[in-house]
Structures are given as structure tokens and as C-alpha cells.
Prior knowledge:
With 233 residues, the protein is α/β, with parallel strands linked by helices. The protein is 42% helix and 15% strand. The protein has helices at 18-24, 29-49, 69-92, 108-120, 137-150, 160-165, 212-223, and strands at 10-14, 54-61, 96-100, 128-135, 177-180, 199-202. Farnesyl diphosphate binds at residues 15-20, 33, 36-37, 40, 59, 64, 75, 78-79, 82-83, 131, 133, 182.
Amino acid sequence: MEKLKIVPVHIGIIMDGNGRWAEKRNLPRILGHKEGIEAVRRVVKLAVKYGIKYLSLFSFSTENWKRPKEEIEFLFSLMEENLRKEGENLNKNNVRVRFSGRKWQLPKNLYEIMDYVEKLTEKNTGLNLIFAINYGGRAEIIDAFKEIIKKGYKEEDIKEDLIKEFLYLPDIPEPDLIIRTSGEKRISNFLLWQCAYSEFYFSKVLWPDFNEDEFLKALIDYQKRKRKFGSVK
Length: 233
Ligand code: FPP
């Protein structure tokens, strides 16, 4: 195994392929999401093990409302149940949990447990675990501009730093690496503003099958990249 010399500070993951995982087994799609939770557990442990500071997981997009009502309800109850189950455990492990997205449009029960876990883990200094729920990159930029206008800023105030300040979680550094599973190669409205200089890694594995081997492949690939941020090396 190659040695890891550089690890990303912030990894974002587009957890894709739950539905296909289930369909391949002639199971209902929702069971793919259930299995996807196990992969979430695995990847959180891996992030801690490899010293990743920030892990952002794309859990529900602003476009996912187009899915069948039963699937949406199942997803929300799965999230609620797991946050209830794992909140204390994450806290004990010094993980700080945060949420990004239009939280106020989510069901009350889910919103309440999100709020509880966020407050419970607020002072933790280990892994920062961010669940993007009802998140869309465009929605985030729209919401930022609405706030900027409400605050009365003028045209000459509009600079990158000001826009950044009004994003949902302005204190979190931009993702160094974005991983997408299931062989699809697109961003699907995830962290649009923040991914300007991110490195991308596409894994063929479906999300429920994502494991340490795949995670390491992404990390090893990342450390070979030459990041230039528009400059020359
Ligand atoms: C994509 O697979 C996956 C999702 C839309 C949901 C992922 C969410 C979780 C695993 C829950 C996160 C957990 C918490 C606690 C917030 P897909 O359905 O698009 O798969 P397909 O492309 O194969 O149909």
C-alpha cells in the first residue's frame, strides 16, 4: 500500500447508486438507501481514521423532491431514525455534526433532531461531519443573494469574499476532493460555489458497496494531483 503523505482537509461525497444497488438484487429502491446508511457509517469511521477534518455528504438535493413521495418519506424517516440512534455516539467520538441546505422546508421531526444533534455536538473538535439535506448549490447562491440584498449591500460591495460570507456554512473550507460513486460523472448541483478548485474522483462502485479500499484509492489518486489554483507550479 502506498503511503499517504497528503490527505485532503475537506472531502465531499455524492453518494450515488443506492437505487441501482437494490434493483440489481430485485429489491425495492428504499432498501438501497437503508444499505446506504451502512456505507455512511463506514465512511465516517474512515474519515476519522485517516485524519480528514471535514466530510460533507450529499444526502438529499433540492431536486430530489421530484422522486416518488414514498421514497422521500422513507429517506427522511431513515435520516431521522439514524440521527436519533447515532447522535450520542457521534458526540462521544468528538464529531461535530452540521447541516447545510434549506432546513426550514424539511419535516418538523427531522428538523428537530437535526437541530438537537447540531447543538449537542457544537463544541466538538474532531471530525466535522456535514450532511447536505435539501441542499442545492444554486439554491445556496440564491439564498446568499437574498440575504445580501436584504442587508442593503450595493453593487460595488459584491466581491467573492462577501458572497462567501452569506453561504450556508461560511467557516468551512472549500472541498479539496469530491468523490462521486456509481460511475456517474457530474456535479448535480453539489457545492457549486465551493468546488471551483476541487479535485474530482469518480468511483464505479455503488454507494452501498463503498468501502475502505475505494476510499483509499481516492486518497492515493488525490495525492498525485498537482493543484495549481490558476497559478503555475
Ligand atoms: C443516491 O442514490 C442516494 C440518495 C439520494 C440518498 C442518500 C442518503 C443517505 C444514504 C442517507 C444519509 C443519512 C443521514 C443520517 C442524513 P440514488 O437513489 O440516486 O441511486 P440510483 O442513481 O442508483 O437510483
